[in-house]
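Table S7 (text form). Paired inputs.
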Amino acid sequence: MWERRLIGLVGTFLFFFAILQARLVGLSLNTQSAQAAAIQSSCLLPLYDGRAEIYDCEMRPLTGLAKETFALALPGDDSYARLYPLLSEEAAAALYGQSSSQPSLVPLQSEPADSLGIYTFEKPRRYFEAPIAVHTLGYIGEDGQGVSGIERCYDDLLSAGGSRLLVRCTTTASGSLMAGTEPELVEQEGSGQAVQLTLDRDIQRICEGIALEELEQGAIVVMETATGKLRAVVSMPVYDPYDVAGAIAADDSSLLNRAISAYNVGSVFKPIVAAAALEAGLDPQEPYECTGVIEVDGHLYHCNQNKAHGTVTMTEALEHSCNCYFIWLGSKLGGEAITELASRIGFGRAAPLAKDYYSAGGNLPTAEELENSGQLASISFGQGKLLATPIQIAAGMNMIANGGIYIGPTLMEGAVEAETGTLLEAGPAQETLRAVSQQASDTLLQMLQTVVEEGSGAKAKPEGLTAAGKTGTAQTGRYDEEGRELLDSWFAGFYPAEQPKYTIVILKDSTFSTGEELGPIFARVCEGIELATSSD
């Protein structure tokens, strides 16, 4: 009896064991179950958010040119120890401080040797090692969204434009790679759209290099004469787009884009007054006797250092930057004629440079305000309540260089197809109008060439080139700790003088330098552009 029971018990055990074995074999052969298990232990690590690039006028990248390398850090094996010597102190601290059992991607400070067996992946570095056009491009925040500049204004397009990069890992519960698997790079395609600016990368770099040597605080603007397109926009000092917090803490005004900010103008406004006078039919040859001082309703206005220029015409008054002549000319012309022309060519109103990106409007006194003789006298030589940006000054001077035709400045070519450069959507339309006659602009162009050849702008003459322009030294009403008044100094001009290609404005703000001292900077910019463009 007991033998039969034992045989029955053993048989039952063998029966269930056979069923279990069959089930295990079935599971091992069931690919769907295996795939489900793998999915449950699979993770996607974001490597690159796919932000589209920003290009210059020749479709050369202004972002994303360099690469940075990230390594896969796997908990549960010795990768942390192998990675440690390759990381910055900050990255190493973050890696060892995390409590997650999931893999992570860490930026490498140095490249690993091949023998280390570390998984590495490259992604574009947003800004150049020596960042270019930082004030124009702007920067992105920790959340990857644009905070300032073009990065902010075109954030939606840029965010959707590029391909996202992710790293897929199949891991065990401890976070190490599942046996027989390797991490793989996954690409999620974006819209393929990007942003193209009017900036010329070569000209921008030339101006940045000169500004770094010559301007502690200031701006350089280069505009293509025939098109109004901005080929270089430089503001000093610069900031590190990867360390905006440091710039804020330094409180050094490096986040301020001086090229689109308004300043006291001074004598670079005199050509605009002269243009209004010529357009009104006043005789540029009518002489004026400058004694170095002129009285207007009991108030005395002086030429620089009270210098008497003697008998001057309009040409000579521009050559010597004679304040008294222009106060006299303004009284003959009247405030309405000055404000009418200045307003038409962009003074006193914000300039749309790109979508939701504007140059400051500055301040242009109204015709009613200029009924006050003192206000009229002040604006006639660029002082008083008049404020303007370097870009506004460039556009006004460019009108003279461009045969009397005003073209609104722009930074934007538009939205493009990144792969082909095909324009998909143009930037904001540029305002174009005839501001003064061809005859008036030709007359002024010759006068401004004389300023560089024989007058106060002699230091601005480029080597082997012709140029025309005007100095400006504006009082600001701002003083340093020793009670000395700070100046906003300018040089605005164009080259070549006969058939201008580029209009160039130099600003040095809160300085003791005069406009005449900025002439050599203007000359260097002309020479640098000529060298870069003639070799194309």
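Next pair, protein 2 of 2.
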Amino acid sequence: MGKNIGKKSTIKKLMPYIKKYMFYVVMSLIFAAVTVCLSLYIPRLTGNAVDLIIKEGFVNFDGILDILKNIAICSAVAALAQWFMNTCNNKITYGVVKDIRDAAFSKISKLPLKYIDTHPYGDTVSRVIADADQLADGLLMGFTQLFSGVITIVATVGFMISIDLGIAAVVVILTPISIFVAKFISGKTHDMFKLQSETRGVQTALIDEMIGNQKVVQAYGMEERVLDKFDEVNDRLAKYSLRAVFFSSLTNPSTRFVNNIIYAVIAILGAVLAIGGSITVGDLTCLLNYANQYTKPFNEISGVITELQNSFVCAGRIMELIDEEPVAKDKTDAVVLDSADGSVQFRDVSFSYVPERKLIQNLNLTVKPGQRIAIVGPTGCGKTTLINLLMRFYDVSDGQILVSGVPIKDMTRASLRKNFGMVLQDTWLKSGTIKENIAMGKPDATDDEIISAAKAAHAHSFIKRLPKGYDTQIGEDGGSLSQGQKQLLCITRVMLMEPPMLILDEATSSIDTRTEIRIQKAFDTLMEGRTSFIVAHRLSTICEADVILVMRDGNIIEQGNHKELMNNKGFYYNLYNSQYA
């Protein structure tokens, strides 16, 4: 599931994103300092007011009134500074998370298909959405409470020193106990939050998989098994969550206990000094106030540290995704293939998805411009793999593939793929209008061009019956459209592009026989003069192909047109007769 990123490494990787908002970080620190200093100055003013209440009948009301005015001004300015601080913190937090999400989503578009094929979609979605949300929560709490907490601790010690150096020294000496307790417990929670985050990803993947395949689940009566599997993952998530929360919840009470001891020590020492006349009653009031203010940030910081453990785990998972090796960049001198002439060559091509399991070995093939190449063979023989290599979704292990006489490794992927029109067995439509889906490969297409392509693909009639015709909105993956209708739209998309070369991978598998015959005629027109690769299981659809490649175990075992292969009475002959005998 990728590289395991440690906490220190995660923080290091987060820093470039935070540095972008350094102005707001500095401003947040300044506003935090203003808020804290003014808030801590109020107890000093309160202590002065207490000292003005000397005894019964001797109260300096004018002095107390002036102090109350100063307290009101300090409170108002502190509140305003806190509002600005929170605004800066929100800007930092949600800006950083936005940038990280952008980087993660951008990386997904650059990842090799190998990563997409070997990682559950739900887990990847969980990293970009749920883990990013958890990171945002931790960062916001960190910037809001961590800054203020640290400044409060430092400033409180300063105010205490101004009253009595001895008591301030006692507080500083006892403080490490609270820090040690918080650090010890937070260290234990990191692993718990890691398990929680990973299990949440597994759960999201399971939910995504089951919702996307609900028809299959119900058709095979798998509801109970799916529920059992979900319950097992859900119970595991609950167990890890409870453990993480339990251990993290120990932090606050533990530090609070230590801090209460510190408060009691200050109260006793301060009372003794006040009785001895070393400090005034107002000073004692200040010290007790500061003792309370001093210990509070430790409780808050311990909570922040706990939340940050979860955030760092989530950030680590996102960084794993961002750090994944992207598809190798095009060469700096890569050729831009403007318009392919249709010639394709496979020279000693070898490829395997897993090194220890050989698939295609020493494959040689020469395709002349305008030829129709049909690829047939049993399931798993390498038909679709051949297409993946041709489109450079995967790179060959050995040998090379040439298009228009140029090795495809020496040309840009974008220009290579622009020369191919693909219709796959698995349809894909995005949320949007019918028109937008058809024009995906040619965004500047006119309405007339779109309608003409739809008529050629025999999709026009069903589109006109939709509520708003070509402007009808469809949901993710086609919404309520039938599988056949979705495939017709994908065929229309290619008809509109009119690329120099075509790849049809079971392109009519979900279409009724009558419509398939019409589409086949449309394809015949489209394929005229264009190099076409046709992957088919129904052999009746490829009888007119110029060359039929018969594949088995990654090798081309027979090659020729339909008549020649039937006369040879080999593997193709038996395959054809098994369908039509």
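Residues 7-323 form a domain with the ABC transporter transmembrane region fold fold (CATH 1.20.1560.10).
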